[in-house]
Design goal:
single chain, 240 residues, Spore Coat Polysaccharide Biosynthesis Protein SpsA, Chain A, two-stranded antiparallel sheet, 6 helices
Length: 240
Amino acid sequence: MPDFPKIVAVVPAAGVGKRMKANCPKQYLTIANKTILQHTVDKLVSHPKISAVVLSISKNDEYFDSTQLSKYENVHIATGGKERVDSVLNGLCAIERLAADWVIVHDAARPCITHEDISLLIEQCTRHKRGGLLAVPVRDTMKRAKLMSNGLSLVDRTVERQQLWHALTPQMYHAQALQSAIEQALIKGEVVTDEASAMELAGEDSLLVEGRADNIKITQPNDLAMAEFILMKQQESLCE
């Protein structure tokens, strides 16, 4: 049988998380005595099909060296950029020496990702030979807003939700194709909000792979309690 393609994960982790209103970047806040970043990276490095993880951290990062992650042999460091897309690109450049076939990009602030969802994404992308992302269908009624001159937001119209999905991470693509797509988008001055948008700008379709809705991104202070609850339930299910 042919060897399974080599997969490396890139985690952009250079943000400061201003909306968390914390005294340190949100990825270094702790849940159950582990930083959010370590919870996230542990999920990735322990997956049997991911050979290494590249963390793109700020050049002024004052926290990483004091964490357990600095001692992980299969965790490599790249310099983070001004925006998320810059950090992803720097991570992609760093994995060139790792000779990865595919790259999985995952948000640092999504510690609740499961091995089952990672495996599902890998299986779907490799089977169909096409990049893709975890996502969940929109279930709520969606409203498009209009902003009034006095600052109020009013409903402009109801948006049909049937074909709408919430984009999550991980997102998985051929490493060279994603790097090229991001580089070209930045040259053209395009806005790249995630890896799928970069591939879309390059004219490439992405698979939508339905994942778990509890793969939340920690953005606001009250997300911490929700993430702690989810992680606790995940640990309990592993012990059963």
